[in-house]
YegS/Rv2252/BmrU family lipid kinase (Hominibacterium faecale), 315 residues
Amino acid sequence: MRHIFVINPLAGKKGKKQKLEEQIRSASERLGEAAEIYETRSQGDGERFVRTICQEKEAGENIRFYACGGDGALNEVVNGAVGFEGVEVGCVPLGTGNDYVRNYASPQEFLDIEAQLRGQARSSDLIRYEAERNGQAGESRYCVNMFNIGFDCNVVDQTSRAKNWPLVKGSFAYLLSVAIILVKKKGADLKVFYEDGSAFDGKLLLIAVANGCYCGGGVKGLPLSKVDDGLMDVSLIKNVPRRTFIRLFPKYAKGIHLADRKAPEIIDYRTCRRLKIWANQGLMKLCVDGEIIDTEKVTFEIAPRAMRFSVPAGV
């Protein structure tokens, strides 16, 4: 197995990159495994690097890439690796959210580099999507964990700005952003077309299309989602009053909101293999694994067992 660590130098706290590189060299020497390190230079560079290595690899060669960063870094590595034989993807979570790995274990358990090098890959689903803008469809890409539109996406957008404010860091930036967006009560105005022929048309608080359970650094918004069941989980929360959402949010964060007696009235939670969402007015913000794009229409389709995801030994 060829081990390649793809490091986002902007992820994590200052000095974390240097410590990680030392851990990689130390663990690989102890195990007698050769490990390579590549530091990304710009957004999209990780995807380009991984795809180039995959295209040039020899027949029969096995490679495992470790995305060292947040969910966005993992998304880049997966989009570079998807479709190639003999390729696995792992993750060393250094970002703010680190939500995909939470589907397997605590992010802390993924920081053991020796366990990473001794890890085993499992077949996992991805979600293939195609976004359309100005009547032009973009290329097909893959989401690893979750899409968010409406409240959740607006919170991510606000959090990216709040993290740059003095004394606002980590989970506090997220909670502060939740409060700000709640005051504004920014949702979305959408058409949602399900594969069974049913549809939703109008204003909503949020909709999430998920492969995994978590977003926002551990908020368990889609608690029934599984990364290997061949299905997308879709959660649509109607345009409820602020007081209703405030009451429900603690349960939403813990993933126990579906058991609330009022849940059937305000939440449409279902699974499907295909889905379409259109913006009713102009562009909508679509959050893909923590990164935001603007689009008019987007189609989603589950890609069963499209990724070999490496889980550290002992997890």
Observations:
- The chain has a mean pLDDT of 93.
